[in-house]
Amino acid sequence: MLSMSFVQMLLEAWIEAPTLMAIRAIELLFAWSLALQTLEYLRMGKYTADDGFWSWQLQRADIPSTTVRAWLDVLFKPRMHQLHLVLRLMAAVVLAVQGASLPLMVFLFAGNLLILIRWRGAFNGGSDFMTLVVLTGLLISQVVGALGNVALGWQAGFWYIAIQAITSYFMSGAVKLLRREWRNGSAMTIFLNGAIYGPLSATHLLRNKWLALLGSWGFIVWEILFPLSLLDPRLAAVFCAVAALFHFLVFWFFGLNRFFWAWLCAFPAIMWCSAQFSARFV
Amino acid sequence: MTELLFTAYFLALIATLIIKTPIIKGPWLFLLRAFFPNWKFFHAVGHVPHLYARSAVQLSSGELKWADWVLIYPRRVRRLHHLVHNPDTNLGLGQQNMVDHFWADLHDLPEGADPRDLVSYKMMQRLTHQVLRARDVNFSHSQFELRMVLDGRAKTLDTQVMMTSPVVAC
Question: Residues of A with CB below 8 A from B134's CB?
Fold first, then answer.
């Protein structure tokens, strides 16, 4: 009963003040995603230590500029790196409590670049890319806002995030459609067998050729049609709900928990842009 | 105007699928590649790099007694709480990404260049050493190998050795 009235309240708020709701939703989701990532990084000190697999002493040779390398040597000292992560965690809390601000987003953006470099460009592939997209969108909103137009700033930030997120689904589906192994369903079984939680058990449903085929085509079609979510916010809500299920399955089979949260952060922007875009046709 | 932008956006997306452009490479571009995502996930099935390693103990005769090759490939047990906290699995995924990078670095290496100078080679060497040490603290020599493995739906279809490291005394 309580949850129903909460959902109703959320829906009413979304209708009455969609931009404020979208801003708050994206700030909270992003703060949560950032905090989860940072807590994971904080548990990896053993692996980034000087004798660890991800030792900076090994990786520093990748940096082409000696001046930059010298700066990074200081910033990536284990204690300094841990301090940065603690500050990042605090910044995520501030983002959740107080909302975005220019100094906060500049700090998070610069810090994110450092973390990417620390992990040779990306620690977790796509989730790092989407985290950077949302971070860039939030930074755009604050920079444009600081120049005097807060509404335009959020509009630009939301559109940047929404277009990147929609493109990510479309491209991911389109490249699969071009591959025979995806069209005949075999790719899904092969990838699932090679996954970190794999291989599939001998009796697993997705070893069935026809189910794998159905699953493959279901996701390909849904991904390719994702740009249609811009035509109606109700359609966007359905596409986002399926996306949440899709990302959960990706986590379940491939262990990619960061993907789930990183893409969830983009949903308020997709919903907001869909409402704005579709309103032009009404 | 909006309709035009929407159409142009779709055409641009389709164009990126059809038109092949030269790949721009560079150390900074590699480190900052998150700014240029291609969003192509799990798309191509083909030969995948797998890292193998083996250890040896030196006998009193001076001869090396080798253990079997070990596949260094992350496998973890799934837990629902991993949705919110999953550092070990993510480290495993990162490790396999590094194996992919090592393959890419070897692939791009100019003819005659020594792979031992590569950062990714040194990281593979450290990884194999740590994994082998965890299995047997007494080994005296080690070696690793990068194999390209083609998996089918039910079994491995083909394996090719891309690189075998020299034997290293530990």
Answer: none
ipTM for the whole complex? 0.91
For A117, the closest of B31, B38, B82 (CB atoms) is B31
CA B75, CA B93: separation in Å to the nearest integer?
9
Report, as an integer, the average pLDDT of B77-83: 96
Nearest chain B CA: its distance from A187 CA (Å): 6
Task: For B15-58, write each residue's pLDDT tens digit.
Answer: 888 888 777 788 999 999 999 998 888 878 899 999 999 999 99
- Test mutation, A124, A171, A248, A282, chain B, max B CBs within 10 A: A171
Residue with tokens 């083996």: B54
- Using CB atoms within 10 Å of the CB of residue A252, give its burial: 0 to 12 exposed, 13 to 18 middle, 19+ buried: middle
Residues A233, B165: Cα–Cα separation, whole Å: 56
CB B41 within 8 A of CB A172: yes
Write the pLDDT tens digit of every residue in A120-177.
Answer: 999 999 999 999 999 999 999 999 999 999 999 999 999 999 999 999 999 999 999 9
CA distance B50 to chain A (A): 11
Whether chain A has a CB inside 8 Å of the CB on B13: the answer is: yes
Residue A141, CA distances (Å) to A134, A152, A164, A169, B5 in order: 11, 8, 15, 23, 21
pLDDT tens track for A184-201: 999 999 999 999 998 999
Choose among A187, A156, A171, A132: nearest CA to A272: A156
Which H/E stretch holds residue B153? Answer: none
CB-based contact B27 A63, cutoff 8 Å: yes
State how far the alpha carbon of A54 is from the alpha carbons of A138, A237, A257, B119, B127, in Å. 30, 40, 21, 11, 9
**Short-list A122, A75, A74, CA closest to B32:** A122
Domain ranges across chain B: 45-169
Measure the CA–CA gap between A132 and A149, rounded to whole angstroms. 23
Task: Kindly report the pTM of this predicted structure.
Answer: 0.93
Q: What amino acid is encoded at A3 in this protein?
A: S
Asked if residue A244 lies in contact with residue A111, where contact means CB atoms within 8 angstroms, the answer is no
Split at pLDDT 50, 70, 90, the class of A28 is very high
Distance CA A105, CA A107 (A): 5
**What are the φ and ψ backbone dihedral angles of A102, each rounded to 5 degrees?**
-60, -50
